[in-house]
Amino acid sequence: MKAAVLAGGAGTRLYPITAYVPKSLIPIGSHYVIEYILEYLKHYDVRDIVMLISEKESDLLRNHLGDGKRFAVNIEYSVAERIGTAGAIGAAAGLLGDRFLVYYGDVLTDMNLTDMIEFHERSRATCTIAMSTSVPMEYGVARVAEDGRVTYFEEKPIIKEYPVSMGILICEKEVIRYCKPDTDISHEVVPQLIKDGKPVFAYLTSKRHYDIGTFKNLEEAKTLVEQSKGAFQLS
Amino acid sequence: MKAAVLAGGAGTRLYPITAYVPKSLIPIGSHYVIEYILEYLKHYDVRDIVMLISEKESDLLRNHLGDGKRFAVNIEYSVAERIGTAGAIGAAAGLLGDRFLVYYGDVLTDMNLTDMIEFHERSRATCTIAMSTSVPMEYGVARVAEDGRVTYFEEKPIIKEYPVSMGILICEKEVIRYCKPDTDISHEVVPQLIKDGKPVFAYLTSKRHYDIGTFKNLEEAKTLVEQSKGAFQLS
Amino acid sequence: MKAAVLAGGAGTRLYPITAYVPKSLIPIGSHYVIEYILEYLKHYDVRDIVMLISEKESDLLRNHLGDGKRFAVNIEYSVAERIGTAGAIGAAAGLLGDRFLVYYGDVLTDMNLTDMIEFHERSRATCTIAMSTSVPMEYGVARVAEDGRVTYFEEKPIIKEYPVSMGILICEKEVIRYCKPDTDISHEVVPQLIKDGKPVFAYLTSKRHYDIGTFKNLEEAKTLVEQSKGAFQLS
Amino acid sequence: MKAAVLAGGAGTRLYPITAYVPKSLIPIGSHYVIEYILEYLKHYDVRDIVMLISEKESDLLRNHLGDGKRFAVNIEYSVAERIGTAGAIGAAAGLLGDRFLVYYGDVLTDMNLTDMIEFHERSRATCTIAMSTSVPMEYGVARVAEDGRVTYFEEKPIIKEYPVSMGILICEKEVIRYCKPDTDISHEVVPQLIKDGKPVFAYLTSKRHYDIGTFKNLEEAKTLVEQSKGAFQLS
User: What are phi and psi of C8, to 5 degrees?
Assistant: First the structure.
C-alpha cells in the first residue's frame, strides 16, 4: 500500500515561521516533521510514498528527501497548485495503487497503523478514517435543558460521542473517482461517500494525534519529543 | 451592573505579537480590541468597568484608558499575577457589586447583552453563561455505529447539542465565594456551581463571538470590521 | 515651528509585528512610540505637528491621537501613498510654515532640540541635520595599509569622522521645492542641496538616537525606558 | 586546510523564526544555508569541516549533516556553550590543524577563496581577514567642516576607506593561543593580534557577502538565489 502525504498546505496558522520554512520541514527535536512521518510509515512497512506538494516547496523537499533511499523508503512527487486535498490526490491517481493511505503532512501520532489496516480489511471498507476519542475540544461546552438550565459544563472537554478525525485515511481505488479538482477529502469526499451508501468506517483509537499546524500544538509536540529523548513516542 | 474585563492573559497563541503588544491593545481597523469592548459594554449601558490585569500591561493600559472618561465609561483597575481568571475576580471582589458581568478581554461579539441580562433575571440564575450555537468545531467529527460504520461525518461542524461558551457570564455576588486563587471561572467555578445545585443557566444565541486569541480568528475579525467599514458589527 | 513626523513607513524590518501594529503605535513601557515623540516635541515647545501617514494606518492613528488636545499639542494629518519621505513632505507643503522640523517617526532620542534650533539659526542654514557621534557601525571595519596589512581593526566601532544622521532635520521653506514625488529626504534632497551650494549644516551631538525600526533597537529602547522607570531618558 | 564553521549563534535578530529553526538550517530556495556553505567550501577544495555548535542545535545538525559524506565533505562537531566565537575555536583546537579557515555560519558569498588563500600565503600572515569594499553602511553619514557645514552627505554609503569584515578569516595555528573562553574573534582576538605586532592582513574584495542574520538580508539572499535559479551565485 502506498501512502499519499499531503504536504502542500500553506501553513497560515504557523505564520510567520511558514513564510520561511514549509510546515513539513519544521524541526522538532533532532528531526524534521516529515522525517518523523517517514519513520512512522516505514515502521508500519509503508515504504512507497507519494509526496503531494505545491511548486513553492518542491525544490527544497526534493533536495531534502530525494528519492527516499537515505530514509530507506521510495519517494515520488506530485506537484499541483491549490486544488484541494482531494484534488491533489486525484492529480496523483496514476502514482497510487488499488489501495492507498492518505496522511496529512502536519500530523504526528503513534497510533497502531497495522491495526488500522487490519480493521480496514476486516470491515471491507471503501474508506476507513482514523478517529481519536482523546482529543479535547477547543471550547467550553454545555448541555442545556429545555428551560435553559445547564446540566453539564466542561472547559475543553473530550466528547466521546464525537471522535475526531486524525488526518489518516485508508482508501480503496474507488475513492479516486470522488477526488475532483478543488475538493477536500474531509469536507467533500468523505460526506459524499457516506451519502452514496459506500462503506465508510471509523478506526477508533484512544491514541491522539498532534496536528502541528498551530504554535500551541507545535510546542506540545516539541515537549513530548524532548521528554521521550528524541524517540518517536507521542503518547 | 459592573463588568469585570479579563485582560491579563499571556496571549501565547498570538506570539510573537504579544511579546510587544498586550492582546487587548492589538488594533483591528481603526480601534484597539479593548476599545471595541468598551464600546460594546457602553452600548448596553454597562458603564462601570473593572479591568482585571497583570503588572506587565498595567502601565500601558492605564495610560491608554485612564479613568475611562475619554470613552464615556468609568474604569477601575485590579492588578493580580497569574492567579487564574476566577482568582482575579476574587481579588477584585471589593470593586464588584451584587451582580457583575464577566467579560473575556479577547472576545468580540454583537450578541444582544440586554436580552441576556433580562434572561438572567427571569431565570433567577446564580450564573448565566452566554453560549453560541453557531461556533464550528476545529476538527472533523463523526458519529459511528456499533460496528464502526460512519453514519455521519462533517469537517469543522457546528454541533447544536453542544453550544459553545463565548466568554461572557453574568454572576450573582454568591459566585465570588467560589473564586479562589489559582482557579479558573470556566474550568472550576462553573462546574462546581452546577455540582452544588446552584441555578446555572445558558443564554443561547445564534450570534457568534470572535476570540481574537489566535491569528486565524484575529484575521477573521479584521476582515469583518473592514467589511462593516469600521463599525462594530461582527455578524 | 511646525514638525512633520514621518509615520507612514512600512516597517518591514519589524515584521510580523508591523503586520498588526503600525511602527509608531508599538508600545515601549507605558507609552506608544508616537506618544514619546509628541512628549519630546512638546518638551521643546514644538506643539504644531503634521503627521505624514499613509491610508493604511490613517484611521487608527486619527482615532488614537485625534487633534492632539489630549496630549496638549495640535495635530494635523497628511495622507499620501508611497511617494517617499520627501514626496510626503512636498504633499504636506500647505500645512508647513516658513521653517519646519522633519522627524522620523521611528526615532527616539533625548538630544537637546532647543540647542539644535539655535545652532540652525546661528548658522543661517537652509537645512540642519542632527548627527550623532555616538552610533556604532553594524560591522567590523579595518584600516588597511598599501600592502594589505591591517593597522586598525574594530568590531562595530564608532567612527568619529563619519557622524550618523539621526532622522531629525530643520528645514527652511526653500527645501520644499526639492521635495518632489518619489524622492527621499536623505537619499536625494540633502545631497542635491549640497550640490546646489545651499548652506547645509550638521548639528553634531554625542547623544545617540534609537531607531526602533529593528527588533534589536526596539529591545534596547525598551530596556532603557524600563531602567529610567518610564521617564523619557534614553541616554 | 580545515574550516571551522561558527554555527552556534542564538540568531536573536531572526526571531521568532530562530525559536523554531537554527539559523544555519533556514532554507533559501532549494537548499539550507549550511548546505550552501558546504557547497562553497567544497568548491574551493576545503573538505574537512568542523562545525562549532551549541547543545541546542546539536542533534538536529548532526541528523541533517551526519559525517558529511552525503555532501562529499568530512564533518566533525565541537559542542560548546556560549563561550564566544574565539572560545569555541579554542575548544575545538584539537580538531583544527596548523592553518584553518574561520567561517561565520550565517554568511553567504561568492568571493574567490582560492585567491584569498594565495594572498594569505604570499603575505605570510598570521591572520588574514576577508574584507569587502562593497558593503553599504546602515545609516546616513556626512563629512563635516570645522564650522559645521556639511561637505558630503550620503544615505547608506559604501565607505571605501573602511572595508567591512565578511566573517571569513584564515588563521595560523598561533592564533589558537589567543582564543580563550568568553572572547570573540573579531572583538578581541584580531585587535590583540594587531596590538602584539602580528602580521594581520586584509584580503580586499569588491565581492560582497550576505549575513543572513537579519530579515532584510535574508530576503535579499532569497531574491538573489531565485534570480540565479538556485545556483550559488550571490553577486
Answer: -110, 10
